[in-house]
Design a protein that fits this description.
The protein is mainly α. It has eight helices and no strands.
Length: 155
């Protein structure tokens, strides 16, 4: 090392200067490390800095190599939580691009509107009936006067 050669020539270099030279000789990717060392009240000795640089390099090396376990863990999901959202064979799109759902297969969740199992709220008959009661003319009015009042508004 250059420092050893200078010592052989009996030229003394201050420890702070050696530390600063060593800090600025590291690659640019170590900038955060360099700033952290420089921001201390006292600079470490060159030997301490060498040890810290070696530790930092080892930590970066270990961080860059992903383990098999970590890569598999990123792909892991719990089956129970997401089971109802996965596409089954019956819901795979046909060649037309339309979904092919078997009619004998019932919807497994409960309707949020009426609470009955087997359909969704978007296709709930009770919701559609309650939404527009005037569209259901097949039910006779119990009170004929109410019907007259609604049909003959301008008399």
């Amino acid at each position: 090392m250059l420092v050893d050669k200078l010592k052989e020539m009996e030229i003394e270099i201050a420890n702070d200067l050696l530390t600063i030279l060593l800090l600025y000789s590291v690659p640019e990717s170590y900038e955060n490390f360099r700033i952290a060392i420089e921001s201390r009240d006292e600079l470490p000795s060159p030997e301490t800095l060498k040890i810290k640089l070696i530790e930092e390099a080892n930590a970066r090396k270990n961080k860059e190599i992903p383990t098999f376990y970590d890569s598999q863990r990123a792909l892991y999901t719990e089956k129970k939580k997401y089971e109802r959202y996965r596409q089954t064979e019956s819901r795979q799109p046909d060649a037309d691009g339309k979904r092919n759902r078997n009619n004998n297969q019932k919807f497994k969740l409960k309707c949020n509107y009426c609470g009955i199992f087997g359909h969704k709220a978007s296709i709930c008959r009770k919701k559609q009936e309650n939404k527009n009661p005037m569209l259901n003319n097949n039910k006779p009015f119990k009170n004929n006067s109410a019907m007259l009042a609604e049909t003959n508004e301008t008399k």
